Amino acid sequence: MIRLNALGDSFVEGRGATGPAGAWYGWVPRLAGLLDVPEGRVRNLGTYQATTQQVVEEQLPRALADKSPVIGVVAGVNDLVGDFAPDRFRDNLATIFGQLAGADTLVFTADYADIPANLPVPGAFRALLRERFALANEMLRAVTEATGVLCVDVAADAEWARPGMWSPDGLHPSARGHQRFAERVAELIGQATAGAPYDQRCREEGRT
């Protein structure tokens, strides 16, 4: 049984940090290590350039077919820097979190950091992107509060304003950024589960 499932874009895929074998090694395997989840019980569905619409259409059905006790979803940046449609964006978030959340599942996500500050774009376009990111954060917070989904407050974390947290492209976290995110998620899960590693909690509840 999958114990940790991750859905989303290249942030979830792990771009920006590589492991010893040269493959992407982002926050998902790092979080699995912190939660004592064996590698074979982790499934990462994150894909490069995925939008929330693609998560709904391609990743969500797979996650629902084999629902794990811990599910992480981080997506939306590709919507914001591309063809942004606020209504569609909000509806997709509501669909994703509404269908994944439940009494037997701990779902977490994160709001959006000030990525526009990292990008070499004209000032007017950066201002537009920041407006979109601010609106997206409002929508995300409303949906997570309504569905009971845990949300890592990346936007308010001053650490993410430091250059060392990002890879040279400014879009993806560095190894340090991925580690920071994994640690923050583990802390949030620990608080929500009375401090017990979630994999241990699953065993105590008789799950295999």
From TrEMBL:
Residues 6-180 form the SGNH hydrolase-type esterase domain. Coiled coil: none annotated. It comes from Streptomyces nanshensis. InterPro entries: GDSL_Rv0518-like (IPR053140), SGNH_hydro (IPR013830), SGNH_hydro_sf (IPR036514). This is G-D-S-L family lipolytic protein. SUPFAM superfamilies: SGNH hydrolase.
